[in-house]
Structure formats: structure tokens, C-alpha cells
């Protein structure tokens, strides 16, 4: 087997991997990227879970289903008559697939633009050298040898199956199968009220499915600010989602065309949920099984994740790991930031990631976004704080949009006024949160945001008003 030599080899072309490869190439390194994702024709499909079966396709379906609901329920408010509104699910899925392909092709273009050599196949360690590592790219019966001075592992994660109920992607679905359902199920069950469960539940609920979400935690969205979680549960219930928390799942049985879930409710009652499809979204597990980590002594933890330090260094010199395959939140943008930072560290620079200001978003309707600490966390840590809140109901742009659900909440230090957390539920929360991330990175105070001129009319004025509310001086509420 012949070998090609590179300064940096990146294993995985998801958000962390492909961005790390690009940044390393920008810094003058000879770079290769290895990725095994394939499209329907068997060709390369870089982008990882995010592009292929995660962030991107789910947002495409959320957008399509939201358009359908607006046309069916809300267009008349604007004087628009549509007649009978129908959804062509196959066309919706085809559009989703095209969006995914555009992103796949875009990454391949970026590799070519930055002179990155791309290998389509599984990458694995085969040995340690004096000045680097031997790797193999496996594609069917073919093996291609690589030698790398530095290796960045960015192999991502996979959906965690429920014990005793493996994914068949026909009746018991992971996020992958849930994005490919060919017709609207009459009854859809979901185990797990996290981001994936809520987003995909929202898609199929809008299209007509009866959706029941079962959550083992005693509280809904426990990681979210309690006030936001309470408002979210109220809105989702009003929309038609049935959400049960504090349940204990006992078993899942499949029939020819249906699934039944036996569980105990929070009240202790035995219950059976019968549904046509079941989405299981109970977390994700790191993708490390195919790395052949033992060949080089790469250290894994009890979850199978790669052990790294604060700078994403592994126990092996010259081997780094980023994204879902290491500790920390499994977020695409967290992986991207780590990938850039590692590429810069390899080049002798000082890459930096501030984990305290990584934003979180749930792309439901209303959207939910936050950065920093919640009220319950501040109380637990005995931090003296002030809170300011402003409802979208009092925002002129939200009224014009016809979406006044939710609010912006800002939490600031009681003594210094430094912003400690920002929590948003409402229209375009995913976009509005960026101002808060910038503010917190620059250690801004609530007064700083309150004194900045925001365009009128805009949804961002609600952020300004929430900052004013910290000092009890809102102008429009």
C-alpha cells in the first residue's frame, strides 16, 4: 500500500472537521480530509450529521411545515385567500434533499478552493511513527495509506438507541429516519423532549400528525431557563403537542405497521402508547468505534468519547479531537469553533473557545435561544442578580409579523451590571441571540445594551427593552 504524506489529516468532514481542514490550509498546511458519508448515488456527501441528517435537513422541513401551517391557518389574517391547502410530502422531502446536496457540494467546492485533498471512505489509525501517524482510508475493498504529522479527529456522533428497541428506520426512527418519513403518520410517538424531539415533533404535528412526547426527566426542558421552559410548554401544548414528563419507559413492541410503548406515568399509572411511528431521541454517542484507537493507544472514556484537555489535545502528541466526539455540548457551532482553534494551535497560534458564551437554539415555533446562565443556576450558585424581561406582545415589529409569543429576558450581576445570561422565546430568537453573545464576549453590562440605538421597528428592540427592564425603566411596557 502506497502512502501520501500530509501536515494535517482531518478525520471527519462535519462542521468541526471541514472547518478545521479549511483553517489549517489557510495557515499554509498541506491538508487532507477523510469522510465516509455517501449520498443516494454513492458519491461523497461531506457535512456530517449536521448537513446530512441533522441541522440542515431538519430546518428545511421546519420551514416547509411552517409555510404550510401559515397558509392553512394564518394567511387569511393578511387578506390572502388560498382555497384548499395540501401538502405534497414527497416534494417537501425532495426539496430537503436538494438543500442537503447544495451544502454537500458547497463543502467539496471549499476543499478544492483551499487545495485540500479529500478522501471518500472510513479513516482509521494503523500505526505510530517517529514524526507522526500512519492512517488508512477504507472504501469497500480498497485501502489508501496516509501519513500525517498531525491528526484532528472530528468523527461526530450517532443517535443513541433505546435498549431493546434498535432503530429500524421504518417504525422505530432515529433523527435520520424521522427526516425521511414518506407520509404523514396519523399517530407519532416521540421518546425524549429535547431539541430533536421537539423540532421533529413540530414538523409532523403541523402536517397533521397526533404527536405525543414522552420525557423521563421530571421537568420540561430542565436545561432551559425555568420561565422560558414554562412558556414553551404552554405554547407547545396549545399547538397540539401532548407532552408527558417524569415517565419511565418499560418496553417497545413493534407490529407490522405500528409501535406500542409501555410506560409508567409521573403519577405511577401504567400506560400504553400506540402509534404508527416512534422517534427515539434520547441523546447521542460519540463515533469512535471505527478509529482503531487501540492501534496507537488513543485514550477513550467510559462513554467512548476521546479524552482531551481544555485545548482539545488527546493523550497522544500531535493528535487532537473536536466536536461531538469529545466532552462538552454536542452543537455544530461548538465543533466549528474547536476546529478553528485546533488548526490555529497546530500553526503555533493561540486558538480560543469560550464555552461560557456558546449559544443554544431550539428551532421550534416559537424559537428558543439562550446564552449564559439561567435564573435557577444563578440561585444555586448564590449569585446576586437583577432580571429584566420584555414581551414581544409590546413590540411593534412582532405585531406586524403576527407573532407576539414570548419574551426576552436579561440577567445581570446585581453589583456590576455585567450580563450573565440572556434567554429568548419568540420570533427569530435564533438570530436575536447573536447580539447577546457578542455583548457577553465583550463583558458588556445591561446598561450598554440599553444605551445602544436599535433600529425601529425591529424585533431587536425587545432586547434593548429587556436591558432597560433590568433597571426597571422600560419605555414601551
Q: How many beta-strand elements?
A: 22
Strand content: 25-35%
What Rg, in angstroms, do the CA atoms define?
24 Å
Identify the overall geometry. globular
Class of the largest domain in CATH?
Answer: Alpha Beta
CATH arch. level architecture of the largest domain: 3-Layer(bba) Sandwich
Any idea what the CATH superfamily of the largest domain is called? FAD/NAD(P)-binding domain
Largest sheet: 7 strands, mixed
- Distance from N terminus to C terminus (CA atoms, Å) equals 71 Å
Question: Which secondary-structure class do the elements indicate?
Answer: alpha/beta
**Number of helices, counting only DSSP H or I runs of 4 residues or more:** 13
User: Any low-confidence stretches, pLDDT <50, length ≥5?
Assistant: none
Classify the helix fraction into a percent range: 25-40%
Could you say how many structural domains there are in total? Answer: 3
- Mean of pLDDT: 97
CATH fold descriptor of the largest domain? FAD/NAD(P)-binding domain
How would you describe the overall organization of this protein?
The chain is of the alpha/beta class. It contains 13 helices and 22 strands. The chain has helices at residues 15-26, 48-53, 55-74, 89-113, 175-178, 195-206, 226-239, 332-346, 375-380, 396-401, 429-441, 446-451, 461-470, and strands at 3-11, 31-35, 117-120, 122-129, 132-139, 142-153, 157-159, 172-173, 187-191, 210-214, 242-244, 248-254, 259-264, 270-275, 277-280, 284-286, 319-321, 360-362, 367-372, 385-391, 407-413, 419-426. Strands 1, 2, 3, 4, 5, 6 and 17 form a 7-stranded mixed sheet that branches. Helix 1 packs parallel to helix 8, helix 3 packs antiparallel against helix 4 (89-113) and helix 3 runs parallel beside helix 6. It starts with a strand and ends in a 7-residue tail after the last helix.
Amino acid at each position: 500500500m502506497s502512502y501520501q504524506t500530509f501536515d494535517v489529516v482531518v478525520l471527519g468532514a462535519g462542521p468541526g472537521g471541514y472547518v478545521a481542514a479549511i483553517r489549517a490550509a489557510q495557515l499554509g498546511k498541506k491538508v487532507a480530509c477523510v469522510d465516509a458519508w455517501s449520498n443516494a448515488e454513492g458519491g461523497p456527501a461531506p457535512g456530517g450529521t449536521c448537513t446530512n441528517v441533522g441541522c440542515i435537513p431538519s430546518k428545511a422541513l421546519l420551514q416547509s411545515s411552517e409555510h404550510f401551517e401559515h397558509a392553512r391557518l394564518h394567511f387569511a389574517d393578511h387578506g390572502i385567500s388560498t382555497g384548499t391547502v395540501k401538502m405534497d410530502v414527497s416534494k417537501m422531502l425532495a426539496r430537503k434533499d436538494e438543500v442537503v446536496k447544495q451544502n454537500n457540494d458547497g463543502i467539496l467546492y471549499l476543499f478544492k478552493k483551499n487545495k485540500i485533498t479529500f478522501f471518500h471512505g472510513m479513516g482509521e489509525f494503523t500505526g505510530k511513527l517517529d514524526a507522526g501517524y500512519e492512517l488508512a482510508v477504507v472504501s469497500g475493498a480498497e485501502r489508501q495509506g496516509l501519513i500525517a504529522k498531525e491528526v484532528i479527529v472530528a468523527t461526530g456522533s450517532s443517535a443513541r438507541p433505546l435498549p431493546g428497541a434498535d432503530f429500524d428506520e421504518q417504525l422505530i426512527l432515529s433523527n435520520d429516519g424521522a427526516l425521511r418519513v414518506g407520509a404523514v403518520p396519523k399517530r407519532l410517538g416521540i421518546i425524549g423532549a429535547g431539541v430533536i424531539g421537539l423540532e421533529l415533533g413540530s414538523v409532523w404535528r403541523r402536517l397533521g400528525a397526533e404527536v405525543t412526547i414522552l420525557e423521563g426527566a421530571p421537568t420540561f426542558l430542565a436545561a432551559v431557563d425555568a420561565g422560558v421552559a414554562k412558556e414553551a410548554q404552554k405554547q407547545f401544548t396549545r399547538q397540539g403537542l401532548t407532552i408527558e414528563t417524569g415517565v419511565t419507559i418499560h418496553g417497545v413492541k413493534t407490529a407490522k405497521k405500528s409501535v406500542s410503548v409501555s410506560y409508567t406515568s409521573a403519577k405511577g399509572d401504567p400506560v400504553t402508547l400506540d402509534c404508527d411511528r416512534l422517534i427515539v431521541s434520547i441523546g447521542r454517542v460519540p463515533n469512535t468505534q471505527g478509529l482503531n484507537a487501540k492501534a496507537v493507544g488513543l485514550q477513550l472514556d467510559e462513554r467512548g468519547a476521546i479524552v482531551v484537555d481544555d485545548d482539545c489535545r488527546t493523550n497522544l502528541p500531535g493528535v487532537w479531537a473536536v466536536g461531538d466526539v469529545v466532552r462538552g455540548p454536542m452543537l455544530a457551532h461548538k465543533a466549528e469553533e474547536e476546529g478553528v482553534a485546533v488548526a490555529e494551535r497546530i500553526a503555533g497560534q493561540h486558538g480560543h473557545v469560550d464555552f461560557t458564551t456558546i449559544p443554544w437554539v431550539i428551532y421550534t415555533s416559537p424559537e428558543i435561544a439562550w446564552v449564559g446562565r439561567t435564573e435557577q443556576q444563578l440561585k444555586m450558585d448564590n449569585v446576586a442578580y437583577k432580571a429584566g424581561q420584555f414581551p414581544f406582545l409590546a413590540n411593534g415589529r412582532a405585531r406586524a409579523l403576527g407573532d407576539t409569543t414570548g419574551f426576552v429576558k436579561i440577567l445581570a450581576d446585581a453589583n456590576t451590571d455585567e450580563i450573565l445570561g440572556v434567554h429568548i422565546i419568540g420570533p427569530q430568537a435564533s438570530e436575536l441571540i447573536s447580539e447577546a453573545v457578542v455583548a457577553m464576549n465583550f463583558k458588556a453590562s445591561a446598561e450598554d445594551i440599553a444605551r445602544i440605538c436599535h433600529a425601529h421597528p425591529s424585533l431587536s428592540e425587545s432586547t434593548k427593552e429587556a436591558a432597560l427592564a433590568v433597571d426597571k425603566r422600560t419605555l414601551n411596557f
